[in-house]
């Protein structure tokens, strides 16, 4: 759902131009494993010499982290990390693993929204006003407001429109 890329722009351009993602042993590792690994320990073939070429851009040492919590949608989070000076320490890799795990959970679709909250959010997404929503559902405006308040709280959203956009992005409405 989100990509954060702080690698050097010349490397990104080179990587993209040569379509390395299809051949990158680090990417293959994160899609077929969970946990963490140093680039130097990855034993996949690298016929395009992706890792050798990364070194010419200062990406000499790296680590990869892949996290999957067994969710039904198959959503996986991963990160590739690189540095020019030395291997990542075990403590650094543990911190990167925690970062990826926390990011995964922060971006995961919520599972605690009620059908009534989702119904109201769908109506907000469609541009309906509170009075119309209440009328259509046969409930009071106060009930609609409470459903929106609960949904915003569960999603960490500031506004009803933001909450509706979030659940739409998650594919819940």
User: Which CATH first-tier class of the largest domain would you pick?
Assistant: Alpha Beta
At the fold tier of CATH, the topology name of the largest domain is Beta-Lactamase
How many structural units, i.e. domains?
Answer: 2
Structural class: mainly alpha
Roughly how much helix do the residues carry, as a percent range?
40-55%
β-strand amount: 5-15%
Radius of gyration: 22 Å
What is the count of β-strands? 3
Distance between the termini: 16 Å
Return residue spans where pLDDT drops below 50 for at least 5 consecutive residues: none
- SS element count, helices: 8
Sheet of most strands: 3 strands, antiparallel
What overall geometry do the principal axes of the alpha carbons give? elongated
Average pLDDT number: 93
- Fourth-level CATH superfamily of the largest domain: Transcription factor LuxR-like, autoinducer-binding domain
Concise description?
InterPro entries: Sig_transdc_resp-reg_C-effctor, TF_LuxR_autoind-bd_dom, TF_LuxR_autoind-bd_dom_sf, Tscrpt_reg_LuxR_C, WH-like_DNA-bd_sf. The protein is mainly alpha-helical.
């Amino acid at each position: 759902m989100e990509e954060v890329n702080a690698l050097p722009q010349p490397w990104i351009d080179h990587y993209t131009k040569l379509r390395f993602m299809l051949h990158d042993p680090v990417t293959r590792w994160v899609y077929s494993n969970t946990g963490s690994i140093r680039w130097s320990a990855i034993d996949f073939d690298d016929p395009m010499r992706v890792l050798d070429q990364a070194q010419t851009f200062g990406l000499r040492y790296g680590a990869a982290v892949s996290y999957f919590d067994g969710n039904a949608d198959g959503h996986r989070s991963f990160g590739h990390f690189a540095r020019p000076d030395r291997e990542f320490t075990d403590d650094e890799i543990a911190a990167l693993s925690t970062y990826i795990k926390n990011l995964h959970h922060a971006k995961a679709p919520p599972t605690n929204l009620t059908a009534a909250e989702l119904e109201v959010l769908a109506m907000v997404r469609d541009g309906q006003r509170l009075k119309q929503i209440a009328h259509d559902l046969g409930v009071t405006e106060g009930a609609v407001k409470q459903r929106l308040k609960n949904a915003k709280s569960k999603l960490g959203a500031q506004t009803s429109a933001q909450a509706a956009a979030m659940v739409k992005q998650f594919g819940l409405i």
